[in-house]
Amino acid sequence: MIRAGTALLSSALLSAAVALAGEPAPADPKAEPRLEDLVPGNWFGYHAANESVYRHYIVVGKGQKQGEKTVYPAGGIVWVALPDELAIGCAKGQPIQGNWLPRSVIHAQDFTVTLEGTKLTFAGANVRRVFKGGQYNPDTFTGELKRPGVLVGEVTGPKDRHETFHLMREELLTKPPALDLEKGKTHGNLAPLDGGSYHYSLYIPKSYDPAKPMPLLVNCSPGGGAPPLSPKMAEQCGWIMAGLTESKNGPVQPSAENVAAAVFDIRRRLNVDTKRLYWSGFSGGSRLASWCACNFPGSTAGVICMGAGYLPSVGTLPEGCAAFFIVGQTDSNHAEVTGLFPQEKKRRKAEMIIHPGGHSWGRPEDQELAIAWLQALAEGKTPPAVPAPGK
């Protein structure tokens, strides 16, 4: 157990919160707020960088006019490989409990936030370590502020460095807009509401109710263009299902950016149960699914790995994450998967189907059984039986 003291939080973060507490309510709550009034408040978001998905929680205080600009004091924390509520609590002085991943880190940093026209910039400075980790360079996020309080953009740098960021006012996470997509239908190549260069496919079950959070399963393909894994089971279990479009075998960073863009946008559109994220994939997509689980610990309830095991750099999945393996009798990765399974069976809830085929996604009934098995675990029910190898 490690405790982070409040002294590690920035004075800017604390003063921003105090400033916000004294903010008067708008004169006309029905009137559309000015852009400068959308900036103060709590911001949350994803930052795909260094082949990881970092989270940011930033508190922005009351702004002051400086010529054509409005400047706001702010402070925040950035973390990776930790549950969101645990990281935010740690920054406030609460203890971190549990055996989290070796790469779990939290840093604090100050921000100067500037709005000029529609251009919004978060300029970071004075980075301090809060929990583990080494050096972390200050962040700078610049883009167009979009209503009702969203900032999406890219960061480029030397040596072909490329990153993406997706920030929104925290209250938008609990207030998704009116649903503009048909339920019970697969929507392919969806572009995010707030822009960006990545896409995803999406299936929303007919039972989706915006007042009730729903589990989300994101599917990954080695060749890109992953579909939702099983619309049939999405309807049966009441899960939202998505597939990453640009993510494919190769460098992890573009896939990290696709993951961040898709999950951010789905949370913008829909009421997602953030304690029940699931990841699935075939071959290289299986390896990416394991990587996703490690980037979303505390949120990930399970993975479905088809035709391969984990990304070598992953090592093991976070605590509380179940694993279901699907592999063919003649699959080129058969030995890898069947060797990994008994190890995982000792560490977590795990199951495996060996189907009679080769290197493939497996049969639809294999995927359906995997989803039903994960659903039963979540409901505290006895999982369905798994057939004998080769059946």
In short:
The chain is α+β, with helices and mostly antiparallel strands and 391 residues long.
Structural notes for this entry:
The protein is an alpha+beta fold and 391 residues long. The chain has 2 domains: 2-174, Lipocalin; 186-379, Alpha/Beta hydrolase fold, catalytic domain (Rossmann fold, 3-Layer(aba) Sandwich), CATH 3.40.50.1820. It is built from 8 helices and 19 strands. Strands 2, 3, 4, 5, 7, 8, 9, 10 and 11 form a 9-stranded antiparallel sheet that branches. Strands 12-13-15-14-16-17-18-19 form an 8-stranded mixed sheet, sandwiched between helices. A hairpin with a 2-residue loop joins strand 7 and strand 8 (119-131).
User: Radius of gyration from the CA trace?
Assistant: 22 Å
- Given helix and strand content, the structural type is alpha+beta
As for the number of domains, it is: 2
The SSE order reads EHHEEEEHEEEEEEEEEHEHEHEEHEH
CATH topology of the largest domain: Rossmann fold
- Which architecture of the largest domain per CATH? 3-Layer(aba) Sandwich
How would a crystallographer describe the biggest sheet?
9 strands, antiparallel
Overall strand count:
19
Number of helices: 8
- Quote the average pLDDT: 91
CATH class of the largest domain: Alpha Beta
Low-confidence segments: 1-12, 14-25
